[in-house]
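Below is one such record:
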Amino acid sequence: MEFDIVIIGGGLVGASLASALRNTGLRLALIEGQPLPEPDSGWDSRIYAFTPGNADFLKECGAWQRLDLARVQQVEEMRVFGDTGARLNFSAYEIGAPELAFIMESRLLQHALWQGLREQENLTLIQPAQCAEMSLQDDAARLKLKDGREIRAKLIVGADGRDSWARHQTLMPEVPTPYHQHGVVANFSVGKAHRGIAYQWFTPEGILALLPLPGKHISIVWSVSPEHSAELLALTHEEFCARVSAASNHTLGELQVITPPAAFALRVLNLAHLTKHRLALVGDAAHNVHPLSGQGVNLGLRDVRELAKVLQQRGELDCGDLRLLRRYEQARQSDIMSMQLTTDTLKNLFVNDNPLLRTLRNIGLDATNKIVPLKKMLVRHALN
């Protein structure tokens, strides 16, 4: 089998890249290792916040139009609280925007993307299939699958997540740095209407984010120590609800679990290079960030937007030419580094018992809340 581009990984990032290249005339293949779950009426525990800029991109891909918008929640305001009463509010109204973000379930968006992929004329879906070997050569990249099939391509794109097989095969030496925190996630029904408001609390126990879902439902991400994570997962649902309710100052009234809590280890990954000759990495295969900003998937989609643009404007260059791929890498470095620095700084600043830092961080929140031009600048940057 011979292609121009082979994408490894059919999650949100890989699938959106294939969709973005649908009208280019390039011969594409997408390799996905798992059968895709069909959406159902239950809630997916994997919830993402998408910026308006990425929502527009998903509309260009045709995926947004296939979504059940009754399962998509707009965020119109965000309220951030320090650990001594300081607060910072962001509002779409303040900058004349209709929303700050859209919240939706991963499974629903993936299904919408794959509906389009199955009809895409320049795309071959290889699924389920597992990669076994990869070599990057001067004239082409070569892949061998575990079932013995061999594939030749001008470019391999690794979109296979934080434990990327593609990254490991190419001897990129950097390894993730653990944060020594776990992200505890769960979905709840709530007693009070959330009114499209997202909340975040910086507490001595960790960083708790509440994301609004359609109806009287929310999703949480609670960044805590591994020991605290284990304790939370061992609680009964009633005890867990009580802990979340107390940590969020009972803001949304009585909570009831609708998807059981789960946890994953948090880490940061910063690669010196996102590309090699005939290889490009996108999404979590290329970078990991702390979830406190909710920007991991948005970084990945911005990778896709940039890589698709570079490939479409390649002129006479080969898709896998390192000179071309470096354009993508250089265009993405600032955004990735900025997000990693911001989340890393906030995590270290707030998960810290130093009394001086505690005072300074809360003064900083209150001061930022009072500087309207600064708040507007931060919000507009987050809309991309």
